[in-house]
Amino acid sequence: MDERFKSHLQTGLTTLARCWAIRRTDGQEYGFTDHDRTLSFDGLDFKADTGLTALAVEQSTGLSVDNTEALGAISDISVKAEDIEAGRFDGAEVKAWLVNWDDTDMRWLQFRGTIGELRRSGNAFQAELRGLTEALNQPTGRIFQKPCTAVLGDGSCQFDTSAPGYTVEREVEVIENGLVLRWNELPGFEPCWFERGRLSVLSGSAKGLWGLIKRDVTDGATRVIHLWEPMRGGLQAGDSVKLLAGCDKRMETCRLKFNNLLNFQGFPDIPTEDWVMAVPKQTGRNTGGSLR
User: Fold this and answer.
1) DSSP characters for 133-199?
2) Tell me, what DSSP letter sits at residue 35?
3) Is the dihedral of CA 258, 263, 266, 271 positive or negative?
4) Shortest CA distance to 136 belongs to which of 64, 60, 69?
5) What is the reported pLDDT for 290?
6) Per-residue pLDDT for the chain (292 aa), expressed as one digit of tens each?
7) What residues form the membrane-spanning segments (predicted)?
8) Pairwise CA distance, residues 137 & 170, whole Å
9) How far apart are CA 56 and CA 72, in angstroms?
10) H-run or E-run covering 276
């Protein structure tokens, strides 16, 4: 805590307000304050009269997760209902300060974390805020399994997803229930090429959102893409989307489809559970296959 701010608290006569900054994963930033006028610092305006309030921050020593909740009203100028429904605030970064509103250079960062579970009811929302130690609750380390553990294009995979032949940008022609997309043709791409891939929205009200592709099939002369779940955000005909080729995590796919076998992160020859139960025998070979 800054010494000037600490001295201000010790006077007993304070001019304090709370400020919150929310930065979504798409880069959009929002500032809120419970003061009666807008405050500004760190290049962001913290707007008053937004209806946002926060409960007390529950902090502890050790590796326990600091947590709190924020309550607010949905409005057209700040948090919109359609953005919540589309998941644009999921995992957003949150910072909370205690600020001297008479001199905003005197402030104390009380909380930093992300938005967890977010619920809405009518014209109000309630957001769970999780501290930075929440990330320590996630399993880490190498996983030993037959399929590849990397995500196509990540630091382990190192495949260049922008390489020719692995992506295509098209305008949506037909979309059914936000789940099924149809095109008259997708020339140059084999059937099932985009299965297990990704669909990213490039324009329209759903810009910035993405979904995972469940199936890529042909229906006569029509190419049909099925998503795992309906696309949120109001995706509609005429919007531009990008399709990324899918990877089923098999060694054969890595070698033949992507020519990236050197970066394959699976263990195709790892013994199965049957191998553990194998016993010496006079005939045949103990190869790790089924005992039957």
Assistant:
1) GGGGGS--S----SS--SPTTSTTT---TTSTTSEEEEE--EEETTTEEEES--TT--TTTTTT-EE
2) S
3) positive
4) 64
5) 60
6) 678 888 888 888 889 988 888 898 888 898 888 888 999 999 999 988 665 665 545 555 444 545 555 555 545 456 777 787 778 888 889 888 889 999 999 998 888 888 877 777 767 777 777 777 777 777 777 888 899 999 999 999 999 999 999 999 999 999 999 899 999 988 889 989 999 999 999 999 888 889 999 999 998 889 999 999 998 888 899 999 999 999 999 999 999 999 999 999 999 888 777 666 666 666 666 665 565 5
7) none
8) 40
9) 15
10) helix 273-276
Q: What are phi and psi of 208, to 5 degrees?
A: 95, -15
Q: What residue ranges define each of the domains in the chain, with the CATH number in brackets?
A: 3-137 (2.40.10), 167-244 (2.40.10.170)
CA distance 178 to 180: 6
Q: How many CB atoms lie within 10 A of CB 208?
A: 16
Polymer length in residues for the chain: 292
Per DSSP, the chain holds a count of helices (H) and strands (E) of 4, 16
- Tokens 């005992």 correspond to 291
**Closest-CA residue to 103 (of 4, 32, 30):** 4
Residue listed under structure tokens 């001019």:
15
- pTM score of the predicted model: 0.67
Long-range contacts for 114-122 (Cβ within 8 Å, ≥24 apart)?
Answer: 115/22, 115/89, 115/90, 115/91, 116/67, 118/84, 118/89, 118/90, 120/74, 120/81, 120/84
